[in-house]
Design a protein that fits this description.
The protein is built from four helices and no strands. It starts with a helix and ends with a helix. The mean pLDDT is 96.
């Protein structure tokens, strides 16, 4: 259950970060509401996950998922660079997330 909560928190974190691009400094109502709700939701889910999982593991996975997700969304939606070094770096973060998951014994 902890990993499901953490995965959900990471997905909502991606929504939160992407919504920052659209709220234009909290001047647009709907994107601003999405930012506030998704930010609170992500923190809530993370808080629930750390009741079950080790804090260091959960926080590292949560931030890693957010970083990877937002980097991929940036490439796909906002035409940000997708050079080999950037893609390799994203792959390293994914490898770290997988390593943390594999190192956690339930």
């Amino acid at each position: 259950m902890g990993w499901l909560l953490l995965f959900s928190a990471g997905l909502v974190e991606i929504i939160f970060a992407v919504s920052l691009k659209y709220n234009e400094g909290f001047t647009r109502l709907l994107p601003s509401l999405v930012t506030m709700v998704s930010g609170a939701g992500s923190f809530f889910l993370l808080t629930m996950a750390i009741k079950i999982l080790p804090l260091g593991t959960a926080y590292a996975v949560w931030t890693g998922m957010g970083a990877v997700g937002v980097a991929i969304v940036g490439i796909l939606l906002f035409k940000e660079p997708s050079d080999w070094l950037r893609l390799f770096s994203i792959t390293l973060v994914i490898a770290g997330i997988i390593g943390l998951k594999l190192s956690h014994v339930d």
